[in-house]
Write a structure and sequence with these properties.
2-enoyl-CoA Hydratase, Chain A, domain 1; disordered C terminus; six-stranded antiparallel β-sheet; elongated; 23 helices
């Protein structure tokens, strides 16, 4: 027995350091240091470049999600410098692209033996001649005909043209091309030769990630239309500029055989032209050394942690037949002691003594880049760490490359990835994951970036999905109970609270403290949008069925009342029935003689003819734009009924993204023009427009359009300041969010984002307004209208 006991003690002693090591390892994963975080962030940045710019993604043959899922585990298990390099290398190797890789620090050594010999013409036999024509001989204007003289052409059947240079010289290299190579190729072709051209991604904004898998990227009735809405609404295309060479009428060289010798120091036009000529099987081509990257496309170089450098292909060279082209016939390298000229001539002689080897049949590349919907990995469980980081990387890169409002983010978005990585690592349960997503989407301060849980709505089922049965509003810096909801299950407790009571605290936490705590979790472009979201949804929020102690000041006395939270949908329904939210019908009516009223966001375009006829005799019309429109075209169409002439009412800026190098990207501007409708009933009238914090996005555009065609007076409170088509971004675990896909501006350059709609007469609501259900904004508009009509207010109509 003692022996067994001693053995157990020994075993425990052996296991103790192992357990301690495992604990430290787990703790390191949960609490990574700044170096580890930087490496994980760099992994996400590299993935972002691949995801949006690598050609394999555009062809739909590569699952970019799998690049993270399959490879980031290497880094998480071994966050050292070597583990980082291994993970990055593995991800790049999955591209099946040998040209995208971790860059070697070794300088490329190019053997320039035998180059820059000057102009030499050497007859090899009765049928072939060797000509060296490096770039420096064209310094003084040497041209093709002085090299390939009329005397040489008839007597020789084969030409070996050595164009190698010893260094890059842009000026002389271009002369070598224009004075010799270009005219020579013109004599060798029977029809126009299109040089290979770069095909790269073109993004006008970012396509939403949740579009159907079977969508027609370009609808049948829009075939051939590559303008405007194509990118944002349907998909992506590529854009490039090509060069070409025309055939010469000179037939003297068309029957001759040519072999060209080049290296990486020849001019880019020379190499592209010769590769195109070889692709047509009209010459042989010998390349000394390694081909330059540009013959395979464009590359983006990234400096990463630990001094690591990677290059990622972001485009590819497409030849005139739609393929990726042919390789040179031979690559040669010189070994020590070898005679370069002898080796070259031997290889060239062999090629010229045999028929030109025809290019292998290659697949024609698709002509339009595509993108596939982002998978959201639905699961009842919290996504694992790989998927959580996938969602983080996806959102960060989308904002980094495509948000037109990134400059409005208060904090540095470049540092945001490192800030959120530890939060997503620790988000191992539902609440932590939900809060991490809330903070991430709130960070960009864009009122469009609402976080949605597909099964639960604003929050997952069973988590923060309830509200106390009271309505609150902020008035003059204080929070007041402005409505008591009809919750029959707790009437007794609710009776202890009165409308107009000041809300002091919830569960002993002051409401001012709660507001500060929620600032980083509630999305909004501005303070008005924050207040709308916070006081309507989140202040009294908690798990459905949970209770809270509400502290109020009622008639000078402070009291505590315990209330239970009801399901949020039930809360919304009950609060919608309070006086404050009751919309009076009809939504188009006469308020007074000569004064018309339209609640435009409750109307439809097909109603405008009859409604305009009803208001045709009005001198003034109040356009109530509050609320979100039922008909997305109502603002534009109504503006056309009012417009007297074509008017530019706004302009939109779209991110024009063609490269991961932000300095190379631009913005595209599209002007919003309202053209007058033939209906004249609403023209030449005085207009008043009503706005409040509930107006956002399409609702804000409606107001901008109407302001642009009228000399309207706009009254109300600051709008949400979130406009420009909401672009969907998916997160693993059945979440999704949005961001504003383009930026909208007034013609004078004033942005709508953050600032909201321009307001002429601000209206500050009072507590009495909330308690009585008075519409102070409408009352103010009626008062202003009556002043204009009768020069003095008519109290009879102020509260209609």
């Amino acid at each position: 027995m003692r022996l067994i006991f001693k053995m157990l003690l020994s075993l425990l002693a052996l296991l103790q350091p192992v357990c301690a090591y495992a604990h430290r390892d787990q703790d390191a994963k949960q609490n990574p240091d700044s170096v580890t975080i930087a490496r994980i962030a760099d992994f996400g940045r590299v993935w972002g470049v691949i995801n949006y710019f690598h050609p394999a993604v555009g062809k739909g043959v590569l699952s970019t999600d799998s690049l993270i899922i399959s490879n980031i585990g290497r880094l998480l298990d071994d966050p050292s410098a070597s583990g980082f390099k291994t993970a990055i290398s593995a991800m790049l190797s999955n591209l099946n692209d040998p040209h995208s890789a971790v860059s070697s620090k070794k300088a490329r050594s190019i053997d320039s033996s035998g180059t820059e010999q000057g102009l030499t013409l050497t007859s090899l036999d009765s049928e072939s001649i060797y000509i060296t024509a490096s770039q420096h001989i064209f310094k003084n204007g040497l041209v093709l005909d002085s090299v390939l003289t009329a005397k040489l052409i008839p007597s020789n059947r084969c030409f070996i043209i050595d164009l190698r240079n010893s260094a890059i010289d842009n000026n002389l290299g271009l002369k070598q091309y224009t004075q010799f190579v270009q005219p020579l190729i013109g004599k060798l072709i029977n029809r126009t030769l299109i040089l290979p051209t770069v095909r790269s991604f073109y993004y006008k904004g970012l396509m939403r990630e949740d579009f159907p898998h079977d969508i027609n990227i370009l609808p049948q009735d829009k075939m051939g239309d590559l303008n405007g809405m194509l990118q944002v609404h349907y998909g992506l295309r590529n854009i490039s500029e090509g060069s070409y060479l025309l055939s010469s009428q000179d037939l003297s060289l068309k029957s001759k055989r040519f072999c060209f010798i080049v290296n990486r120091y020849v001019n880019v036009n020379t190499l592209k032209a010769l590769l195109a000529l070889r692709h047509r099987n009209l010459c042989s081509l010998i390349f000394q050394g390694e081909m330059p990257d540009y013959v395979y496309g464009n590359f983006h170089h990234m400096q990463l942690s630990d001094g690591l450098t990677v290059k990622i292909r972001t485009s590819e060279l497409i030849y005139e037949d739609g393929t990726l082209g042919s390789e040179p016939d031979t690559y040669i390298r010189f070994q020590p002691g070898e005679d370069p000229k002898k080796l070259i001539l031997k290889e060239a002689g062999f090629l010229l003594s045999h028929p030109v080897k025809h290019s292998a049949s290659t697949q024609v590349e698709n002509t339009v880049y595509i993108r596939k919907p982002q998978f959201d990995y639905p699961s009842k469980e919290v996504p694992d760490l790989k998927l959580r980081l996938l969602g983080l990387f996806n959102f960060w890169n989308a904002i980094y490359y495509f948000s037109p409002n990134k400059n409005l983010i208060p904090n540095d978005w470049n540092k945001a990835l490192s800030h959120f990585i530890p939060k997503f690592i620790k988000a191992e349960n539902d609440s932590l994951y939900f809060l991490a997503l809330m903070e991430l989407t709130t960070f960009i301060q864009d009122g469009h970036s609402i976080l949605i849980n597909k099964p639960g709505g604003r929050s997952p089922v069973g988590m923060m999905d309830g509200n106390l049965p009271i309505g609150t509003d902020l008035v003059d810096g204080k929070v007041f109970v402005t409505s008591i909801l009809e919750d029959t299950t707790q009437r007794r407790n609710l009776s202890e609270i009165q409308q107009g009571d000041e809300l002091i605290a919830i569960d002993k936490v002051p409401v001012t403290t709660l507001a500060r705590q929620w600032e980083k979790l509630i999305l909004a472009s501005n303070k008005s949008g924050f207040n709308r979201e916070y006081y309507f949804t989140w202040l009294t929020n908690g798990n459905s069925g949970s209770s809270a102690v509400v502290t109020v000041r009622s008639k000078g006395q402070i009291k505590d009342v315990t209330l239970n939270r009801i399901k949020r949908d039930h809360y919304y329904n009950l609060r919608g029935k309070t006086n404050r939210f009751t919309l009076k019908e009809p939504f188009c009516r006469m308020l007074a003689p000569g004064i018309g009223y339209m609640r435009i966001n409750r109307l439809y375009v097909h109603q405008l003819d009859s409604l305009s006829n009803m208001l045709k005799d009005c001198k003034s019309i109040i356009l109530d734009a509050r609320g979100y429109p039922r008909d997305s075209q109502i603002g534009t169409k109504l503006a056309s009924y009012i417009a007297l002439k074509p008017d530019t009412v706004a302009y939109n800026e779209f991110p024009f993204v063609t490269s991961p190098d932000l300095a190379k990207n631009q913005s595209l501007v599209e002007y919003e023009i309202i053209r007058p409708d033939s209906n004249t009933f609403l023209k030449n009238k005085k207009y008043y427009i009503l706005v409040d914090e509930g107006i956002q996005s399409q609702g804000e555009w409606n107001v901008i359009a109407l302001q642009g065609v009228t000399r309207a007076t706009t009254l109300g409170t600051q709008t949400a300041g979130a406009n420009g088509m909401a672009i969907t971004i998916n997160f693993p675990g059945q979440y999704f969010s949005f961001f504003s896909g383009f930026a909208e501006y007034y013609p004078d350059g004033t942005p709508n984002q953050k600032l909201g709609i321009k307001i002429d007469i601000p209206v500050n609501r009072t507590l009495q307004c909330y308690l009585n259900g008075d519409d102070e904004i409408l009352s103010k508009a009626v008062s202003e209208t009556l002043k204009d009509l009768y020069r003095k207010p008519n109290k009879r109509y102020l509260h209609q």
